[in-house]
Amino acid sequence: MVASYIKALLPSGNPRWNAGKALGTATTVTYSFLKSVPGYYSSGSSERNGFQALTASQRTGVRNALAKWSEVANITFKEVPHFKLGTFESVGKMTFAAAKLPSNVGAWAYYPGGNKGGDTWFNTSSSANSNLSFGTKGFQRTLHEIGHAIGLEHSHDGTKLPSSTDSYQYTVMSYNRHPVMKNAYPVTPMLYDIATAQYLYGTNWSHNSGNNTYKWGNNATFVEAIWDGGGIDTIDASNQTRRAIINLNEGGYSSIGSYQGGNATNNLAIAFKAKIENAKGGSGNDVIYGNALNNSIHGNAGNDIIYGGAGNDRLEGGSGNDRIYGQSGNDFIDGGFGLDYMDGGSGIDTLDVRFWNSTYELNMVTGKTNFAGETAINFENVYTGNGNDKITGTAGNNLISTAGGNDTIYGGA
Asked: What range defines the domain where residue 349 resides?
């Protein structure tokens, strides 16, 4: 069954460059930067009004946008020259140029198929088109028009997206800005765009298939989606001084960086089918959600909240008064320094306080410790440090391991 958000981005007839082959078949598409208007445009075409070849910087922006689409799907773009000699003319399947288009459009592009199919035209009257660098309106527009040129339609045409998801937060094919970060523009195809491109041309599993770390400048402003083909990967917000909200679930949104003096909101998506295993928080009061994989999550400084989700996770609070929930799976939890609330959840969970070399007391039945304000409940196993520790076990099967010091252990029933 095709997901509704994919159907919403597919035009009638499903034009695509691999037409005649199975959906999801990899393909290569040539493209050219036009030197003049091709002969297949009629004399009255709007594209013949004030033709301009793209500048060097505009061409770079187009190449960068094409690369972003190739990163997520098995569609390869090959640049070929616009060649004309007498009556002979040769151009790529897709072309890029500018002209004085009607004032109510910033650019347009044609769906795959026919002579004009894949052609993209920028309006010379739109100032946004002079700058196609990452993070600009011009770059988002370029991603949008290439989306048309490879077979995606507007999110408000045909089978529409609901208003709650019809924005740049979910797709560059929308006319609506991000609902909160209204002056921030996507630098990648977004969540629904990636899914649709992969439906049409197959999934590019080779992109970022190693062990990758995703990290941004402190207080950076950005909107993007992560497509990751494999490996053991980390979202690293350790340099962030504002609160970070990190969601490792595919299709989930994180909030990292800043926007107009405040915290960023839902500005980072993880694409469907992408698996991100690990996360690091910064110095703010972060919230981190694990997924069903075996996650390694470190909160670092700040009063953090960490949810392990399913899987056998290692959860470390770092400094600050943290709240850590192992949830399902056999988790290993280290609250770090501070007065922490730690709940192992279901599974066979282990509390690790080996870093603490003074006395640590824990009643594993009640969760009470010798530190007012610190609680550790639903743990089956405990590792302690070199202090004179006192641990009271539960009625279940416990593993209690102490290091140096004069320790007291009550095994429970």
From this structure: 211-410
